[in-house]
Amino acid sequence: MTVHAKSLSTPVRTDLASALKTTRSRQKDLEQLSPFELKDFLINLAKDREKTSTAIMLNAGRGNPNWIATAPRDAFFLLGHFAMSEARRVYDRGIMAGMPQKPGIAGRLHGFLDENRKAAGADFLRGVHEYGVQKGFDPDAWIHELVDSIIGDNYPVPDRMLVHAEQVVHDYLMKEMCDGRPPRGKFDLFAVEGGTAAMCYIFDSLQQNGLLKQGDKVALFLPTFTPYIEISHLERFQFRIVPINASSLRADGTHNWHYPPEEIAKLADPRIKMAVTVNPSNPPSVAFNALEMRQIVGIIRKNPDLILVTDDVYGTFVPNFRSLMAEVPANTICVYSFSKNFGCTGWRLGVIAIHEDNRMDRRIGNLPGKERKRLHERYGSLTLEPEKLKLIDRMVADSRDVALNHTAGLSLPQQVQMAFFALSHLLDPKDSYKHLTMKIVRDRRDALWRGLGIPLPPEDKERAWYYVELDFMVWAQNAYGDKFCDYMRKNYEPVDFLFRLAEKSGVVLMDGGGFGGPPWSIRVSLANLNEDDYANIGQAMVDAAKEYVAAWQAGEKVRSGPPRGIVPQLGVGGQPAPSDRKVASNQPVPEPVAAPARGRGKTAARTSKVRVAEAQPPASAKKAVKKSAKKAAKKAAKKAAKKAAKKAAKKAVKKRA
Fold it and tell me: Which residue from 34, 75, 141, 650 puts its CA 20 to 30 A from 306's CA?
């Protein structure tokens, strides 16, 4: 058998899934973006899909819930009506009114509620008043704080948080973040513009106060909210990241998204200055279990200076959730956002919580003399004893570059709405709202799994199910083995699946690899679409996966060798071998043949081929290729010379002029 005949029995192409608008090289470029920026490209593809088909875009990317808490909002707007009547009571000039006055205001609210007993929010406002009385608040002081604040006619005083609102939100955190079993003492709260502002203020103040330095080692529990990774890499910080990976697997090779002991053990390194976790995690939505929590607590005893930052925004979606703030309060800075639970991302409501007896304050007091002097000068305009200033109060000042500390603080109407959101849980002994949000995301999870056609993972009481993180490669390995996984890695970018979903099905999901998760993982938000939509998303994911499998299997059929009497045509397929023709043909190697496109236009599905093992062509083909290359080179050289001469002539004319 000749060399060429042998080559014909070796496949030279691998079938690929239908081509996309976004090429692989372009995908590689876009992979460098944050998954939140990459999502915008996917949305544009999905919108294009909407224009050319009856499919509706299903955006399960960003985790903005599609529900809102009604009772605290009804109460907020009803209180606004009462507040305006109080302002006009002082004086009323039509387009101008006075500032609400405190004496007797609680009694006047009762009268207002009697007159408006059927109004939405009236019962809630009665509960608000009664809750304050039960806590020992002066009724007039409590109601006046709410009324004056909802009007927004004063600066925030105290700047860190309103007196009564802080106590209410503190109660909420103790109930929801500490499972009603708080540690001794209390936490100081700083009301901020959502969890993202909290992140900025924390990183800034820890560095300003010498607790973190540029280039320090910082541990990140991964996967995590992408900005925690990106902030750490900013020039100002340049932290050396120590990954704590949720790499624990079940017996079947699937992720359970918990942290193995050897990963958590990394925290014992005293060179690690801070550890940051989103708990429950984002995207996996899994909270620390009791074993993980005990190990972390044990490590803190050995590494007592380690600062823990815990972002607990999804805590209310886990039954009996317990935060690190409950277990290691002295070392923990808690970030909490109201956005997800109450459907209020547009309100920008969050708090930073630091225990009154914390390790960070003690460490600032023990800084070297030079550092203490620097900080004395930094905060000296705020107090005569700046060394006694707590870290959380330094954060308030730092949030306004110290000089503008007198204007710091979250706007007062925002603080009222925050307090009402907190009270909606405190006034609900049955936790009806919380259980409803849990049920919603779990029902959507079930719908997604129905669409995927796979069994639900084992029950885990620590799962919030706000998001789902699915690892394509785990499924590929379990279903088709190493060869299929190798095929995917060699021929596609990890984000190809996302682009395929957006372009072919109008489904927008997010890149799990961008959250520090496995590179082929995908984040699905269960918060922002209706239940039936998730079944459709699951089916779309199956359809996209099948396309890869079909293309791979087509290539595998070639690799398995031809049936007797069939000549493989270099990955094109097989055709009968004529009895009057020798297998070792001298004909040139045929060009790749694409499958016919379905439908019309650029969006029509098509199969493309790529060469993976080039066969040696016969001598005649070699000669033809060589001749063609020589001719092309000669033509290119002639064209370049002509262009250069023209440019030189033009330059000479310009010079003479």
Answer: 34
